[in-house]
């Protein structure tokens, strides 16, 4: 399990977390959520076929849930989080396929925007535009995203220091030293992208996409509807081509799950440090980075 490095300075106060905030933590796969639940503890309660784990994590009220795979499952789960559990902020953590060639297995991507690569109501609406919203891109919250990116950088630094000695890399032939954190556009769709032709088709239509997965754009749309700050982090598990299935399960269980949980823990510790320090700037939609 990755530990927050002792040598690094505390994260900068980039984000003022309100004192009564409640953070929803969402993962799509069992392995990913179990990494979080093992750190979080607490009791589960079931609503709408989902287990919701509620606990105070480093002093921050957290509700964690497994949404399952795909956009519909993600959207209904986040809607339940908002209406039954009163969450005020949402963070998604999971794996993704690296679409851009410079986004490699082991890299971390923090989303700035999401798009649905399988949304196409043309000719009634432009391709990728979500009908009746007048937009194709849904933005993440810049403050929460920056705190998440800092947590990701902190955990990557630890991993680089530990190198191959960090237990969970053993046997995977992966060297973490070059692992990089990217920030940018993530595409979601109800398809596992496992061939180079699928990968190229998305890149041709959406050249700025860094990574592809199956839930984030749906969560971004629900958070947009209810005005909730949302951020998402994805660890790259494959290159979204014919090799995508190779070692996928092993990578998730051994690397992505504990690493994702460590990033979330670093984020929550940072939010706890900045809880109640002041008010978030009104109507701030600029990127603070
Ligand atoms: N999640 C992880 N890898 C993926 C891929 N190649 N396509 C869609 N979702 C993914």
Key structural traits:
289 residues; alpha/beta; Rossmann fold; 6 helices; disordered N terminus; disordered C terminus; binds adenine
Strand-helix topology:
Blueprint: E1 22-27, H1 30-40, E2 43-47, E3 50-57, E4 60-66, H2 71-85, E5 89-98, E6 108-116, E7 138-139, H3 142-162, E8 181-188, H4 196-205, E9 209-213, H5 216-226, E10 230-238, H6 248-273
Parallel strand pairs: 1-4, 1-5, 5-10, 6-8, 8-9
Antiparallel strand pairs: 2-3, 3-4, 5-9, 6-7, 6-10
Helix pairs in contact: 1-6, 2-5, 3-6
Can you characterise this structure?
A five-stranded mixed β-barrel has the order 5-9-8-6-10. The protein has a domain at 94-272: Nucleoside phosphorylase domain (Rossmann fold), CATH 3.40.50.1580. Helix 1 packs parallel to helix 6 (248-273) and helix 3 (142-162) crosses helix 6 (248-273). Helices cover 33% and strands 24% of the residues. Mean pLDDT is 88; it is low at 1-6 and 278-289. It is an alpha/beta fold. Adenine binds at residues 95-97, 192-194, 212-214, 237-238, 240, 244.
């Amino acid at each position: 399990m990755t530990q927050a490095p002792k040598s690094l300075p505390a994260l900068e106060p980039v984000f003022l977390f309100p004192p009564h905030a409640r953070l929803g933590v969402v993962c799509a796969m069992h392995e990913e959520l179990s990494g979080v639940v093992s750190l979080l503890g607490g009791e589960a309660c079931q609503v709408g076929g989902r287990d919701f784990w509620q606990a105070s994590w480093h002093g921050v009220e957290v509700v964690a849930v497994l949404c399952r795979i795909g956009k519909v499952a993600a959207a209904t789960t986040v809607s339940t989080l908002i209406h039954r559990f009163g969450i005020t902020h949402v963070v998604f953590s999971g794996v993704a396929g690296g679409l851009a060639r410079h986004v490699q297995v082991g890299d971390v991507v923090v989303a700035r925007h999401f798009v649905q690569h399988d949304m196409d109501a043309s000719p009634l609406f432009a391709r990728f535009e979500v009908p009746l919203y007048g937009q194709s891109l849904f933005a993440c919250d810049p403050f929460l995203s920056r705190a998440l990116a800092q947590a990701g950088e902190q955990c990557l630094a630890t991993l680089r220091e530990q190198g191959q000695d960090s237990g969970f890399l053993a046997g995977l032939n992966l060297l973490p030293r070059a692992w990089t954190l990217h920030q940018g556009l993530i595409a979601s769709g109800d398809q596992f992208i496992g061939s180079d032709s699928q990968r190229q088709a998305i890149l041709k239509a959406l050249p700025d996409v860094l990574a592809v997965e199956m839930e984030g754009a749906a969560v971004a749309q629900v958070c947009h509807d209810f005005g909730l700050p949302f951020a998402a982090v994805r660890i790259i598990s494959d290159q979204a081509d014919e090799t995508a299935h190779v070692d996928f399960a092993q990578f998730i269980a051994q690397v992505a799950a504990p690493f994702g949980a460590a990033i979330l823990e670093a984020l929550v510790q940072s939010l706890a440090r900045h809880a109640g320090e002041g008010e978030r700037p009104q109507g701030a939609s600029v990127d603070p980075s």
